[in-house]
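Researcher: I'd like a candidate sequence for this fold, 241 residues long. If you have to choose between options at a position, lean toward the conservative one.
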């Protein structure tokens, strides 16, 4: 069941509503007041209107609109990159930086993706921990807070958007920073072990969707080796709070 075009004021006080296999879309102009002790639940709840009250909305996903680029996947000549899956972990800003939620999605060729976090809260800021299959784990600085269930964050326009400035400049016009490629074994450091893995696969002409392909062209060759070797020589490692 899909409920659309909810333009009215909806007040729920003492009881709860549950909709199986449903999407509830409270569009702009809608007010939903779910008072303490009550709940509205569905498989997916989209709120573009106003939500008030102390009750619960089950199935509502807070959305993060993210922009980020991956070093070897990005082509400065086109300002585009090979699309790939990344994972964003939403973390608390107070040590030990507890995990609040995790979501994986594909970044488009323009570096954009939308990530959903049902456990986020409006008015609260977080760290974003960005992970990719062969890149260095990269954390954001403390974000702005979610407002009306939404947050936008762009890693690519300023190096200071990454905690510890841990990104690489990959284009100067426009200015684009990318997360750093080459952490093939995902141990938080780009070193001889990553280089060895890339060298072995390059010598065997390995192809496909594999960690040693740090350029995203489904083939391991000198281009991949160059990125890994360069970042290993720089001693690149994850920088976290």
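Model: Candidate sequence:
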């Amino acid at each position: 069941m899909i409920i659309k075009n909810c333009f009215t004021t909806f007040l729920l006080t003492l009881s709860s509503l549950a909709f199986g296999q449903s999407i509830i879309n409270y569009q702009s102009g809608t007010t939903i007041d779910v008072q303490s002790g009550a709940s509205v639940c569905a498989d997916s709840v989209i709120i573009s209107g106003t939500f008030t009250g102390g009750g619960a909305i089950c199935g509502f996903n807070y959305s993060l609109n993210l922009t980020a680029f991956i070093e070897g996947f990005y082509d400065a000549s086109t300002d585009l990159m090979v699309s790939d899956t990344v994972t964003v972990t939403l973390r608390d800003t107070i040590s030990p930086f507890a995990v609040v939620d995790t979501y994986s999605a594909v970044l488009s060729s323009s570096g954009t993706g939308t990530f959903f976090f049902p456990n986020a809260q409006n008015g609260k800021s977080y760290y974003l921990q960005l992970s990719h299959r062969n890149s260095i784990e990269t954390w954001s600085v403390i974000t702005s807070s979610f407002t009306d269930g939404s947050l936008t964050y762009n890693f690519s326009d300023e190096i200071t958007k990454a905690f510890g400035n841990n990104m690489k400049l990959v284009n100067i016009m426009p200015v684009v920073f990318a997360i750093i490629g080459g952490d093939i074994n995902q141990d938080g450091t780009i070193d001889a072990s990553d280089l060895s893995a890339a060298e072995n696969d390059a010598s065997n002409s390995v192809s496909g969707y594999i960690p040693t392909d740090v350029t995203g062209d489904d083939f391991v060759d000198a281009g991949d080796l160059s990125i890994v070797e360069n970042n290993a020589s720089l001693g690149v490692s994850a920088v976290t709070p």
